Amino acid sequence: MTTDLATVTIHTPVTVAIDLLVRHGVHHLPVLTPEGRLAGILSQSDFLKLSFPGSGLNTVSDIMTAHVAKLEPSDTVRTAANLFTLNKFHALPVLEEDKLVGIVTTLDLIRLIDQEPIRLEDYV
């Protein structure tokens, strides 16, 4: 689980969210309400909604995915893997008593499965 998270709020402008994705080198941003509760998740694929001219999509709440599966810190890796298999998303917010404490991604699972140090040069 990744715990040092970049997040946005439902009111964050889309341009700011894009900058955060690029700056932090991530593919998903948890979206919070002004009160700090999880409202949804923003993934790179959500930005495809912006390709429609004149759509009026200006804030994160306009393009985010609102209904997301969630994990608790006590959930198993198997639970995360099953949720990834059953659904078509690649990130699961982790909540403890309705507070966002982390995120698990498919990349986290891959790293767990193969903890052997790898170098890109070995595969090029």
What are its keywords?
about 120 residues, alpha+beta, CBS-domain, two-stranded antiparallel ribbon, 5 strands, about 25% helix, globular
Number of domains: 1
* Global morphology: globular
Give the full name of the CATH homologous superfamily.
CBS-domain
Total count of helical runs of at least 4 residues: 4
CATH architecture: Roll
Going by helix content, strand content and strand pairing, the class is alpha+beta
Poorly predicted parts: none
CATH class: Alpha Beta
Distance between the termini: 29 Å
Radius of gyration, whole Å: 16 Å
Order of adjacent strands in the largest pleated sheet: 1-2-3
The name CATH uses for the topology is CBS-domain
Helix content percent band? 25-40%
Number of E strands = 5
| Mean pLDDT figure | 90
SSE string: EHEEHHEEH
Model description:
- The structure is a single chain.
- This protein has 124 residues and is of the alpha+beta class.
- It has one domain (8-123): CBS-domain (Roll).
- It is 27% helix and 21% strand.
- It has 4 helices and 5 strands.
- The strands form 2 sheets. The protein has a 3-stranded mixed β-sheet with strand order 1-2-3. Strands 4-5 form a two-stranded antiparallel ribbon.
- 21% of the residues are buried.
- The mean pLDDT is 90.
- It comes from Neolewinella lacunae.
- Keywords: CBS domain.
- This is CBS domain-containing protein.
